[in-house]
Design a protein that fits this description.
With 369 residues, the protein is of the alpha+beta class. Helices cover 57% and strands 18% of the residues. The chain has three domains: 105 residues, Beta-Lactamase (2-Layer Sandwich); 98 residues, no CATH class; 147 residues, Alpha-Beta Plaits. Helix 1 runs antiparallel to helix 2.
Length: 369
């Protein structure tokens, strides 16, 4: 488009020079009849919208406009795009300005050229498309006859993830080469798929479990906690235990962080042994643990579990020749007294801090009536 615009402006400039040379004598002698004739000749025979001739005082001497019934919208757009600005030339006689020529070009020739190109391209494209359709149809039929066995195997691999399948031999040499490559690829995919499944299981475990104790982490804990309030089976028969190590900071300061880590791992082991197999134990962070209990229907059952958890820390831990004593504080809350997971956590947390000042160190949250 830039090339066409440049060409149109250069052509209009040359045409303007020609008009200027023709009209100069008539302008000098103020021969309006001759000027009108010259202007009419050029507007009718050339791509010119209008020509205007002014005297040195910018008074209109003559003008001519192309006489056409109407112009197309496309031509109007191209006139404004390519030839929006007129060509202005000074009429000089004996080094003195005797007038001014203002010429507005028309894009009719450009439009005609574009139409010719578009029609030619359209006709060419039509025959090309017809030839391509015929060729594609023939080729398609031949390929489909050879590709049906391949699509069947590929569909099974896609739907059933049956990476152990292999593509059969094909009578077309090119397809046979393709089958060989695909079979090699399937073998590699089968190996990688097995490896990926193993890694996904490992990543899933790492994402949901604490690295030090291998217990479920805080994220996993919240999933289980929300499940209590979404499942009617657990809504009124579950309990939450918050567990805090009473001497963990002292242990870290006195025996070091390695000893602290050993205590946390020992806590995880003892907690597992002190509750039922189906109970959910998680490490929330630091020395804070939580246990979600299901099928708890009376306080005595809960008391037995709480006392068992407290009893699990009676024996000290032997670490690097040192005897380390530690104890728990337990806060307990029933799910039936909580409106939502956050409410249940708040109740268990309050009960745990209340338990620190009691002996034994456990407390059951009781809502105010």
């Amino acid at each position: 488009m830039f090339t066409m615009e440049t060409y149109a402006k250069q052509n209009l400039q040359l045409l303007s020079q020609t008009v200027l040379e023709r009209v100069q004598p008539a302008v000098v002698f103020r021969d309006k009849g001759a000027i009108d004739q010259i202007l009419d000749d050029y507007t009718s025979e050339h791509a010119i919208r209008s020509i205007h001739v002014y005297d040195p005082q910018q008074k209109l001497l003559a003008e001519s406009t192309k006489k056409i019934a109407h112009t197309s919208v496309m031509q109007d757009l191209m006139d404004r795009w390519f030839l929006h600005d007129p060509v202005k030339l000074i009429v000089i006689h004996h080094k003195k300005k005797v007038g001014e020529l203002v010429l507005y070009g028309s894009s009719e020739n450009i439009l005609h050229f574009l139409k010719t190109i578009i029609i030619g391209l359209a006709i060419s494209m039509f025959f090309i498309v017809i030839a391509l359709l015929w060729s594609v149809n023939i080729t398609y039929r031949q390929i489909m006859q050879a590709i049906k066995p391949l699509t069947h195997i590929a569909q099974l691999v896609s739907d059933q993830k049956a990476y152990n399948l292999r593509f059969p031999n094909n009578h077309i040499h090119e397809f046979q080469n393709l089958n060989t490559v695909f079979n090699e690829l399937l073998e590699e995919i089968q190996i990688w798929h097995t490896h990926l499944q193993k890694e996904n299981r490992q990543l899933s475990f790492q994402a949901h479990h604490d690295q030090l104790t291998s217990l479920p982490n805080r994220h996993y804990f919240y999933q289980e906690l929300f499940n209590i309030f979404e499942n009617p089976q657990y809504r009124h028969s579950s309990a939450l235990l918050f567990i805090d190590n009473n001497k963990f900071k002292v242990i870290n300061d006195e025996y070091g962080h390695l000893a602290g880590d050993a205590v946390l791992k020992e806590m995880a082991t003892r907690l597992r042994l002190s509750v039922r197999y189906e109970d959910f134990i998680a490490r929330l962070g630091g020395d804070e643990f939580a246990i979600i209990l299901h099928s708890i229907h009376h306080t005595d059952h809960l008391r037995t579990i709480a006392e068992g958890v407290l009893a699990s820390c009676e024996q000290p831990l032997e670490f690097n020749g040192q005897t380390i004593h530690f104890g728990f504080s337990l806060g307990v809350a029933f799910s039936q007294f909580a409106e939502n997971p956050e409410d249940l956590i708040m109740q268990a947390d309050q009960a745990m801090y209340k338990a620190k000042s009691l002996n034994p160190h456990w407390f059951l949250y009781k809502p105010e009536i």
